[in-house]
């Protein structure tokens, strides 16, 4: 219950921060909740990358939710990595932090939390621990058989034009030979 | 007698004159016919003899890979979503995408060759727009003639490639390089290897053709995500 209340308060803050765009939604609590949870609103979430890792991997998180100067305290206790710090990143207003997933971590989805240094804003992101990472997928090998040479054959239009030209040449040649045989001379 | 002889001479003279006139115009006509014959013969030889050399375009060396470390800035990665269509306006490609799997030997399968305007994407891999290397392949030709990626080798650096995705977004890629690799010693990691940013490969056959072995390799287009809408 407390968590829900805090989430609502955080949402109200986020809506206020991005006021003009969300002004219309502000009157409806349900819409506000939805907008805070929506994917693609980077101001309201904690980006976890890679989002799927194997145990022992390093994870980078960042968020633009804390505003300038952009510092926060991260909590990866769920996955057994403890507390870590988020410091201002290269982009203005963005806080970035890193932690390492313990080699003993079990597969599953874990919630990573970041608490802004100023204000009581809190953002979360999901981290999936898998025994084989998403990017260790089987990669193809070798070349691809995508042609049989059918595009190399004679162009029918060109062939027709060639045959027509040959017919003209034959007719002309026959005519000239005929004239010569008649003795009219050329 | 004298009268008839004069008449005969006059008639003969007129005949000779007529023959001379006809001779001049006939010679002119013959010359024209001879010229047309020679030109037609030349054209016939050129059109029928030279037709074996008409092959799909291949990339120039200048389109080679200048950006191996991926330094050019990429747009933010999109969430995973399967692709539906690929469009390459510069070479007039607009084709649906079908899912592709691997062959038993581990190479990427090709789309069914019967449909000439159909490309495929590697379904077990990265979706186009997502972080990583997404792979699209299509035929350069089939038994009936040129197919969807016939002109892929003519694509230039900085050209645009668009992929429509099931979630309604369009991933927009910009070409970094167009390369041709022989099948022997194919650079698997360079072509299929994971990338730290959203990238796309578009692959078709190329690199010379022989009747015995078919196409010698693949034309590979390297592109990275530069926008979405």
Assign the CATH class of the largest domain in chain A. Mainly Beta
Number of helices of chain A: 4
For the record, the count of structural domains of chain B works out to 2
Secondary structure tally: strands of chain B: 10
* pLDDT < 50 stretches of chain B: none
Q: Give me the secondary-structure category of chain B.
A: alpha+beta
Helix residue percentage of chain B: 10-25%
CATH superfamily of the largest domain in chain A: Macroglobulin (MG2) domain
Sheet with the most strands: spatial strand order of chain B: 1-2-3-4-9-10-8-7
Radius of gyration of chain A over alpha carbons? 35 Å
Oligomer: heterodimer
CATH fold-type name of the largest domain in chain A: Immunoglobulin-like
Strand content bin of chain A: 15-25%
Task: Provide a count of the helices of chain B.
Answer: 2
Q: Which range best describes the helical content of chain A: under 10%, 10-25%, 25-40%, 40-55%, 55-70% or over 70%?
A: 25-40%
The dominant shape of chain A is rod-shaped
Proportion of residues in extended strands of chain B: 25-35%
Number of strands of chain A: 8
Brief summary of the model shown:
Chain A has 186 residues and is an alpha+beta fold.
Features:
A: 186 residues; alpha+beta; Immunoglobulin-like; 2 domains; 4 helices; 8 strands; rod-shaped; disordered N terminus; B: 229 residues; 8-stranded mixed barrel; two-stranded antiparallel sheet; 2 helices; 23% helix
Could you please describe the fold and organization of this structure?
By secondary structure, chain A is of the alpha+beta class. Chain A folds into 2 domains: 1-38, no CATH class; 41-135, Macroglobulin (MG2) domain (Immunoglobulin-like). Helix content of chain A is 30%, strand content 24%. Chain A is rod-shaped. The relative contact order of chain A is 0.13. Mean pLDDT of chain A is 73; it is low at 1-42. Chain B has 2 domains: 2-53; 61-228, Sortase, Chain: A, CATH 2.40.260. In chain B, strand 5 and strand 6 form a beta hairpin. The longest helix of chain B has 48 residues, at 2-49. The mean pLDDT of chain B is 84. The interface between A and B is large, with 40 and 67 residues.
């Amino acid at each position: 219950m407390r968590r829900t209340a805090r989430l609502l308060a955080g949402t109200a803050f986020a809506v206020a921060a991005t006021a003009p765009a969300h002004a219309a939604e502000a009157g409806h609590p349900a819409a506000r909740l939805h907008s805070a949870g929506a994917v693609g609103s980077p101001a309201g979430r904690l980006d976890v990358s890679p989002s799927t890792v194997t145990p022992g991997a390093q994870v980078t998180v960042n968020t633009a939710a804390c505003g300038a100067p952009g510092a926060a305290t991260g909590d990866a206790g769920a996955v057994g990595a403890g507390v870590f710090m988020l410091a201002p990143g290269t982009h203005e207003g963005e806080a970035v932090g890193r932690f390492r997933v313990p080699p003993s971590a079990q597969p599953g989805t874990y919630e990573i939390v970041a608490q802004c240094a100023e204000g009581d804003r809190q953002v979360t992101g999901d981290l999936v621990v898998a025994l084989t990472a998403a990017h260790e997928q089987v990669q193809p090998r070798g070349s691809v058989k995508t042609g049989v040479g059918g595009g190399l054959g004679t162009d029918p239009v060109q062939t027709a034009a060639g045959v027509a030209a040959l017919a003209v040449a034959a007719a002309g040649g026959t005519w000239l030979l005929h004239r010569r045989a008649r003795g009219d001379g050329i | 007698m004298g009268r008839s002889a004069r008449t005969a001479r006059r008639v003969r003279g007129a005949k000779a004159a007529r023959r001379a006139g006809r001779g001049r115009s006939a010679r002119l006509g013959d010359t024209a016919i001879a010229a047309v014959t020679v030109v037609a013969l030349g054209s016939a030889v050129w059109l029928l003899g030279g037709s074996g050399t008409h092959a799909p375009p291949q990339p120039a060396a200048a389109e080679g890979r200048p950006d191996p470390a991926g330094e050019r800035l990429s747009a933010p990665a999109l969430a995973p979503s399967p692709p539906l269509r690929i469009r390459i306006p510069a070479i007039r490609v607009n084709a649906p995408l079908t899912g592709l799997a691997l062959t038993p030997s581990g190479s990427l399968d090709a789309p069914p060759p019967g449909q000439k305007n159909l490309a495929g994407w590697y379904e077990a891999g990265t979706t186009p727009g997502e972080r990583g290397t997404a792979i699209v392949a299509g035929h350069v030709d089939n038994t009936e003639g040129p197919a969807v990626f016939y002109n892929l080798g003519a694509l230039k650096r900085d050209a645009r490639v668009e992929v429509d995705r099931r979630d309604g977004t369009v991933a927009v890629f910009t070409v970094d390089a167009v390369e041709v690799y022989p099948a022997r010693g194919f650079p698997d990691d360079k072509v299929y290897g994971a990338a730290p940013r959203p990238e796309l490969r578009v692959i078709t056959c190329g690199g010379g053709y022989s009747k015995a072995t078919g196409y010698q390799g693949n034309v590979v287009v390297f592109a990275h995500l530069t926008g979405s809408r």
